[in-house]
Amino acid sequence: MKMPDRRVSRIMTAAALAVGAAALLYFSFTAPRSVNAAEAAQASVSTGAGLAAHDRRQGAETTSSLSPNAAHLRPDTALLQLRRSAAKDFQDANQCVMAMRKIALAEHQLGMCNSVGAEGDADLKAFCERRKALILGSAAADNARLSSCSSLDPGEAEQKNFEYTSRAAALGDVDAQLCYVNADFKLPRPWTAQEHTDYADRAPQYVEAALSRGDWRVVEILRVASRGVAEERGLVYQLTTVDQLTIYRMNRLLRMGAVGNYARYLDNVMERPVFPHDEEEIAQADRWVRTVFDDHFRTSPSLRTAPNTCLQNRP
Questions:
Q1: Where are the beta strands (DSSP E) in 205-284?
Q2: Domain regions of the chain by residue span
Q3: pLDDT grade, residue 47 (50/70/90)?
Q4: Which whole number is the average pLDDT over 176-197?
């Protein structure tokens, strides 16, 4: 009788363990708060032991407990489904909060415009007429986008947007990673110490990866990371000191890829760093821009407008 190849068994076990680890990472974002680190570690050990025992008993196709539908999938297929599911949750949550923010902004603007009397400023009245036409024209589409919301409570929707963005980013979705770095989350509560720590650990890695692949969106995120933006969003202080030199470098890097009116805009808003930065620091910043552009952005698409940093992040 031909004996089963033990190397195949070991390879399949290792692959299953890798998927198990990814599943733990995925579900760690949505697990109840009562699940502690010790329980998670025990679950990891139990999962690994169970898979190994199953493989020894049967030498058959490895199964996974990631979801009821993944029981008979190959590990790489299960992981792919895991990532797709996380990406879909993230996209739906983002669409939901952007629709809510746009509708809230429209209601606010309509309220202000309705308060303008017949004797009001002619330019303001003309602006209001244009805004009303735009708002009414997009009302049906904006309300349809609310169908992606699992909750119509703005606070809950914003919380889910943060959670799903974090999860998809951790599983490698580059759009989610940039939204996470951008940190445009409006939670109805302060950031926790753990969330600050997580952002400080993960955001620099996502920034480095985006720069390495020549992704203009991360450059725009850092260019607009002024002190006011950092104070509004909170987490951004874990990533940058919002200093003049960083903003200058990002402006000049974008300018390397910009054309037309957008190139002129970047020149117009560029502020040359002043004290405490000296001319040598500025020269070093210019050399950094040239090196990064040549190494990573030379083949990136030209920019005619500012990159949209996070899906539909402009209500």
A1: none
A2: 6-73, 81-172, 174-315
A3: very low
A4: 96
